[in-house]
Specification:
It is a single chain. The protein is an alpha/beta fold. The protein folds into three domains: 56-304, TIM Barrel (Alpha-Beta Barrel), CATH 3.20.20; 376-454 and 627-667, 3-Layer(aba) Sandwich (Rossmann fold), CATH 3.40.50; 469-514 and 550-622, FAD/NAD(P)-binding domain, CATH 3.50.50. The protein contains 22 helices and 27 strands. The strands form seven sheets. The protein has an eight-stranded parallel barrel with strand order 3-4-5-8-9-10-11-12, surrounded by six helices. It starts with 8 loop residues before the first strand and ends with a helix. In the N-terminal section; belongs to the NADH:flavin oxidoreductase/NADH oxidase family.
Length: 669
Amino acid sequence: MYPKMLAPLDLGFTQLKNRVLMGSMHTGLEEEKGGFEKLAAFYAERAKGGVGLIVTGGIAPNFRGRLNPHASQLSFGWQVNKHRIVTDAVHQAGGKICMQILHAGRYGYHPFSVAPSAIKAPISPFKPKALSIKGIRKTINDYAQSAKLAQRAGYDGIEIMGSEGYFLNQFLCRATNHRTDQYGGSLENRARIVRELLSAVREAVGKEFIIIFRLSMLDLVEGGNDWEEVVQLAKWLEEGGVTIINTGIGWHEARIPTIATSVPRAAFSGVTQRLRQEVSVPLVATNRINTPDVAEQILQDGQADLVSMARPMLADPHFVRKAAEGKPEQINVCIGCNQGCLDHIFKAQRATCLVNPMACYETELTLTPTDSSKRVAVVGAGPSGMASACFAAERGFKVTLFEQRQELGGQFNLAAQIPGKEEFKETLAYFRHRLDQLGVEVRLGCEATLEELSAFDHRLLATGVVPRVPQFPGSDRAVTYQQVLRGEVEVGSKVALIGAGGIGFDMAEFLSEPHESPTLHPVQWRAQWGVDLDYQQNAGLTERHSSAFESARDIYLLQRKTTKPGAGLGKTTGWIHRTVLKDRKVKMLTGVQYERFDDQGLHLKINEEAQCLPVDTVVLCAGQESNRGLAGMLDQQGVSYQLVGGADVAAELDAKRAIRQAAEIVAAL
C-alpha cells in the first residue's frame, strides 16, 4: 500500500527496514529521576511500532552546550550505562536508534552559554560569551568524545544538530557569526568548525556508524544562508562522510510558523527536493508530515529518500505498523497542536500528546485489560466522551456511548472549522473508527435517561459545556460562538467579540478570513508568510503577499480584564495567532465594561470613558460553564457517576486535559 515508505534503505554497512525516521524531540524524561527507564519504554514502543530509525532528543556534548543548567549531557564514561538502558530496549524491540548531539549555543537558557559571537538571542535572556579558538578546539573534541561514548552506549549512530538556530547553525550564518578569525567571514571559514568537527567525529567512531547531519536548508531569518551556500555546505558534508543529511527548517526565533497545525502538510518538502539534485547522500524531508499518504507522496515524487516524523510518533507509536498492515484509518494522527509536546517542553514539563496521553507515560498510565463483564455508560460524545468510551472498551468493559446530537465530536466539530485547525477532523475520524472497531454501542440523537443509566455499573458524564452569557441590556440580541460555527445565525460586516481568550481568538480568525483556509493551499500559505522555496532572496525570505493583510470584516476583540489578550494561548503558537489578527487589523480592547447593545452598536466604557462601537453583530466568546444538568438529577436519585472533561472543569476548552482525565479515570475503574 505504501511501497516507497516501506522500502528498506541500504546504507552500505547497515540497512534501515523502511524510510521512516522518528525525528528528534526532547521529552523531559532525559532529566527526570529514573527517566531513562521511562525513556526506554517510550522508544521501545515506537520500535515495536515499526519505525525505521529513531533519533533521540538533543544531548549536549559539554556543560556550556546544555539547553538549560539541568539538561542532559553525555561527556563521561560513567554516563554510558543509563543510555544503554535505552539502546538495549530499542534493539530488543527490533529497532535502530541514533543519539542527537545538540549544542545550544546562544539558545542556552543559562549564563554559561557560548556562541561564535557575543550576540544575544531574542528568545533567551542570557548573552553568550564569544568562544575562543581554544574553546572551539575543545568543543570539537567534546563532540567527538560524546559520539564515541554514544557508540559505546549501543547507539547505531548519532545526529549532529546543525539547524534550527543552534550552535553550529550560528557559526554557519552571517547573522550570528561576526568573527574575523579563521572561523568567521567567508562561508569556508564559517563552515570550518563543522568540517573539522565532522572529521573528528568520523575518526572517533569509524566508518560503520551512522552520522546524520541536520542541515538548515531554509533559515528564514535575515542574515541566513543563500541557496548556493546551502548546496556547498551539503557537498562538504557529503565529502566529510555523513551517512544521511536531515532537513532543518527555520530558526526558533524566526517569525514564520514551521510546525504548527496551521502550516500546510509537507509545506517545505520542495526545498529538500532541490538539494536532492545536488548531492547523492540520502536526504530526509521533514515538517508537517503526519499521514502515510503524505509520506508516500513525498517519496514517490522524488522529493526525499526518507521522511522524518517526530510528533506523529507521539500521537501513535504504531504508525508504521498500521500503515504496513493497510489500516491507515486506525492511525491516531498528530494534529500539530503543540499543546502536549512543545508547549510542555518550553515550560520545563514532561512532554506528552493531546490525542495520546500515554505518550511518555508508558510505564505509568496503562489500561490494564479486565475480564469484567461490567457495563459502562458514557454520556456525551465530545473528545472526552469518545476517549472515555474507547479507553473503557480497550480494558474490556461493555460500553454504551450516549449523545443527544446526531453527530459525534462535540466541540471538536466546531474547532475543526477554524482556519488552520482542519487537522482536528483527523481526530474525529480516528475516534469514529476506533469506537466501531472496539464494538462500542453508540446511541446518537439519544438523551440518556435516569432509568437507563441506573442499570450500568459505571457512569461517566462527559456532557461538556454551555457558553457563558454575560448579562447586560441587549445581550439577548447577541449570538454565541457555537451558533456562529454551526451556521445558525448570520454575521454582519462589523463584529464585536466579547471575550479575548482562546475562543475569542479562534472566532476572530474564523470571521476575518477572506478566503478558503490557506492551510489547505501551500503556495498561498507560503506567499502570505513570505516563504520562497526558490530562494530568490537570502534565507528563503520574500515580501509577504497582500492577502496576509486582508480581512473579511471589521472586528473588535474585547475583554473585561486589563491583562494582555490571549494570555492563555499556547506558548509556542500564541504568537502566530497574534500575528494573524494584527495583520488583519483586529482591534483589541481591554478593561471593558459592557453597557448595552442596541441599533447604534455596542455601548461600553473603558476607564470610565463611554464609547460606542458601530457593530451590527456581537458574538459571545466569554468562556463557558460546565453542563451538569444530568449530574444534578443523578445526585437527587443517589446514583453515582464521575465527571470528565468540560463537565468537570470548564475554565478553558482543554481537550488535552479532558482526554488525559478520561484515561486516568478509566484506568482506575
